[in-house]
Amino acid sequence: MERKNTTWRKYIISAVLVLAVALTTILAPVQVEAATLTPKVLKTYVMAKGEKFTLNVYDVADNAKISYKTSKKSVATVSKKGVVTAKKKGKANITVTVKQNGKTYKATTKITVKTSLKPTERVARGNAELILLYNSFVTVLETLGLESDETMVDYANACYEIVELSNSIAENPDDYSDEDVEAVIELIGQMASDILEIMDELSQI
Predict the structure, then answer these.
(1) Between helices 150-171 and 119-143, what is the axis angle to 10°?
(2) Percent of the chain, pLDDT > 90?
(3) How many CB atoms lie within 10 A of CB 196?
(4) pLDDT digits over 141-158, tens only?
(5) 129, 156, 191, 204: which has the fewest Cβ within 10 Å?
(6) Paired residues of 111 in beta bridges
(7) Cβ count near 99 (within 10 Å)
(8) pLDDT of 152-199, one tens digit each?
(9) Domain 38-114 falls in which CATH fold?
(10) DSSP per residue over 3-20, as a string?
(11) End-to-end distance of the chain based on CA atoms, in angstroms?
């Protein structure tokens, strides 16, 4: 079957690199309004046995107290810092408790541990987090009045393009080569890392 053209890959990588350099020169530390935050976590996450990942909690105040608890240590453990370790095949729930602004929030991530993962499964799980991160990023920009900032908007759009591409791979996996899939996995990780760094800068005093 004919594979899709991969010119998108060079375009998005170039856009991400240019934006990353530009952002380092314009960012100024800003405190996000804590009262607007409602903590969020991934609803589901698929892991291969032996893998580790940090369960990120989005939209939390700087002074928030976060704790984690697993429903089944034999399947998946979680550290005090939210690092989840897949122990064996099965399912477990990670409950996250966030205390901030005099309120307590609870959220659960359903963990599924498999023997191994297909590349498309790795794309899907990364895309799920990128969507959550994208929504959180847009919320922060709106809160700070930066929703019309050209550089920020370009960065958000680049993120959205990767989300759309990931959705296309999930819907039509046979249309993409293994090289395409691995490239998208790398893009997802890079974009997530960049946006987390930006949001951290925006949250500092």
Answers:
(1) 150
(2) 31
(3) 15
(4) 888 888 888 888 888 888
(5) 204
(6) 45, 92
(7) 16
(8) 888 888 888 888 888 888 888 888 888 888 888 888 888 888 888 888
(9) Immunoglobulin-like (2.60.40)
(10) PPP-HHHHHHHHHHHHHH
(11) 53
Phi-psi region of 76 (alpha: psi -120 to 50; beta: other; left: phi over 0): beta
DSSP annotation of 2: P
Alpha carbon of 44 to those of 1, 47, 92, 132, 142: distances in Å? 32, 10, 10, 12, 27
Are the beta carbons of 27 and 201 closer than 8 angstroms? yes
Return mean pLDDT, the chain: 80
Domain residue ranges in the chain: 7-30+118-203, 38-114
Q: Which two tokens stand for residue 86?
A: 């897949």
